[in-house]
C-alpha cells in the first residue's frame, strides 16, 4: 500500500472538495487526517498544514507559507474524462488546462484545488 499525503489549510473544505471530484467517501476522516482509498494499493491522505507543521518543527518551512503555490500533482486515470471534467468544475476546481490529447499519448485536463495542488484527470 502506498499513501500520498497533501497538506491543506482547511481539512473539512478539502475533504468535501475531494469527496466530490473523486466521487467517493473517505475511508478515514478524523481530526488531522482524511484518507481516500483510490484503489487496493493507493490512498490519498489530506492533512492540515498545522498538523504537519508540528511534526516538521523548525527543520523545514511551514507548508502554509506556500498557500496557492503548486506543491504536488495528482495524476489520476479515469474512465470518463468528460464527466470528471464537468464534476471538477462543479466542485469549484480551478481550471488550469482543458481536456487535450497530450504528446505522451494521454487525453488529460488539469485543475487546481484551493491550496494550489494540481489535479490531472487522464484517459489512456
UniProtKB/TrEMBL annotation:
Residues 1-124 form the VOC domain. SUPFAM superfamilies: Glyoxalase/Bleomycin resistance protein/Dihydroxybiphenyl dioxygenase. InterPro entries: Glyas_Bleomycin-R_OHBP_Dase (IPR029068), Glyoxalase-like_dom (IPR025870), VOC_core (IPR037523). Signal peptide: none annotated. Pfam families: Glyoxalase_2. Keywords: Lyase. Gene3D superfamilies: 3.30.720.110, 3.30.720.120. One of its GO terms (molecular function) is lyase activity. This is Lactoylglutathione lyase.
Amino acid at each position: 500500500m502506498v499513501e500520498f499525503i497533501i497538506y491543506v489549510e482547511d481539512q473539512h473544505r478539502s475533504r468535501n472538495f475531494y469527496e466530490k471530484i473523486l466521487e467517493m467517501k473517505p475511508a478515514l476522516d478524523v481530526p488531522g487526517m482524511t484518507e481516500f482509498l483510490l484503489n487496493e494499493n493507493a490512498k490519498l491522505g489530506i492533512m492540515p498544514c498545522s498538523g504537519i507543521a508540528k511534526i516538521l518543527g523548525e527543520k523545514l518551512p511551514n507548508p502554509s507559507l506556500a498557500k496557492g503555490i503548486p506543491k504536488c500533482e495528482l495524476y489520476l486515470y479515469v474512465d470518463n474524462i468528460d464527466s470528471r471534467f464537468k464534476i471538477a468544475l462543479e466542485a469549484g476546481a480551478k481550471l488550469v488546462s482543458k481536456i487535450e490529447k497530450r504528446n505522451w499519448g494521454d487525453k488529460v485536463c488539469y485543475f487546481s484545488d484551493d491550496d494550489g495542488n494540481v489535479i490531472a484527470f487522464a484517459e489512456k
